[in-house]
Design goal:
The chain is mainly beta and 352 residues long. It has helices spanning 3-9, 12-25, 243-253, 316-322, and strands at residues 31-35, 50-51, 55-57, 62-74, 77-89, 95-101, 105-106, 111-124, 134-143, 148-157, 165-170, 178-188, 197-215, 259-262, 265-272, 280-287, 298-302, 306-313, 327-336, 339-351. It has two domains: 33-215, Jelly Rolls (Sandwich), CATH 2.60.120; 232-351, Immunoglobulin-like, CATH 2.60.40.2060. It is globular, with a radius of gyration of 24 Å.
């Protein structure tokens, strides 16, 4: 009996059972999505985020709280800011509170295998540096479907946190539920000045979102343990290497060398951090903004711990704009094994 005849002689129930076993043995492709979609980069606007309640105490002070969009500062430029402005303050301690609320978003029904809150933050004490202001921000995730909330991330910022840094924390997400995020920033004076102090302190936030991983495993909810960008220090080998882990390694180890512009060509160096533990497939592209390309894209393979310089062709409409810029965004879509991540870097632009 031939192989084809043996398959044909099996009863239908047996064939269905074998098919089920085969499909169960084939792993589903995992994917990573950042929510709210299109509402976390702040390149040109607050992208649907809106100011919430604000306050400043004591009332006797000339103290003004403000939640505003800042187009000039970010990682890259463009961020939401919590600003506290104080005038004529010498003795009383002030406290300003500002809140930002995200647009509502729904997580589609599916197997959520991990989730984490992620953001870039920085603090500028401004003219209030003499009274040593500190800003404490708290991220709240509201499950609007279940009527519950959690506070997965909080941190105190000082003048030492003047440059943007990435923070993340695991969060529980249920597929099919609707959510809304909020960031509350409390800026408080911690020292008394010897003279009248005036100025503005600002906590800024960029690239804010919930990174949700989906795949074939799980029961529709996540404990979030694998979603943190600050997980264990292992390398890229092993089944636990996630897209969130890849993103964290790229942000901490990717090259930040200047980009060189020569005529119609853009020379960009890309790298694959050694801790990833395997080669990276990198699709690089120069960008004017996160949504507007300046060059054609190119995909290359880079070994772990290695770097490579590639040449990107500048689009005709972008040449005039790049001629007057001091920096450019470099977008890298990176694949390492089954993990995938995208990073944007603001690089210095040098002309030759």
């Amino acid at each position: 009996m031939t192989s084809k005849e043996r398959w044909a002689s099996l009863p239908a129930a047996s064939l269905l059972a074998l098919a089920a076993i085969f499909l169960a043995a084939v792993p589903a492709q995992a994917s990573t999505t950042v929510y709210p979609r299109g509402g976390n980069g702040f390149d040109t606007s607050a992208e649907g985020w809106s100011p919430g309640a604000t306050s400043c105490t004591p009332a006797a002070l000339l103290c003004t709280p403000e939640a505003s969009y800042d187009s000039e500062v970010g990682n890259p430029p463009g961020s939401i800011a919590a600003k506290t402005t104080v005038t004529a303050n010498a003795i009383d301690l002030f406290k300003g509170i500002e809140v930002w609320n995200s647009p509502r978003f729904a997580v589609p029904i599916g197997a959520v295998t991990g989730a984490s809150v992620r953001l870039d933050r920085a603090f500028d004490p401004g003219g209030l540096v003499d009274v040593e202001p500190k800003a404490t921000y708290t991220v709240t995730v509201n499950d609007l479907t279940a009527g519950t909330s959690s506070k997965p991330l909080t941190e105190e910022l000082t003048k030492e946190d003047s440059t943007f840094a990435t923070r993340s924390a695991p969060v529980s997400i249920v597929s099919g539920h609707e959510y809304q995020m909020s960031i509350e920033s409390v800026t408080a004076q911690s020292a008394v000045a010897a003279s009248v102090v005036t100025g503005t302190a600002a906590a800024r936030f960029d690239n804010v979102g919930i990174v949700v991983q989906t795949g074939s495993a799980g029961n529709g909810s996540s404990g979030g343990g694998s979603g943190s960008g600050h997980g264990s220090a292992g390398n890229g080998s092993g089944s636990s290497f996630t897209s969130s882990r890849l993103l964290a390694l790229l942000k901490s180890g990717a090259t930040t060398s200047p980009v060189k512009l020569k005529g119609k060509r853009l020379f960009v160096k890309v790298s694959c951090p050694r801790k990833i533990g395997r080669a990276c497939h990198i699709r690089a592209q120069g960008m004017l903004t996160r949504r507007k390309a300046a060059t054609a894209a190119r995909t290359v393979k880079v070994g772990k711990g290695k770097g490579r310089r590639i040449v990107l062709r500048v689009k005709p409409k972008a040449r005039r704009k790049l001629a007057h810029r001091r920096w450019i965004l470099v977008r890298q879509r990176v694949r390492a094994g089954k993990a995938r991540a995208t990073i944007y870097q603001r690089r210095k632009l040098i002309r030759r």
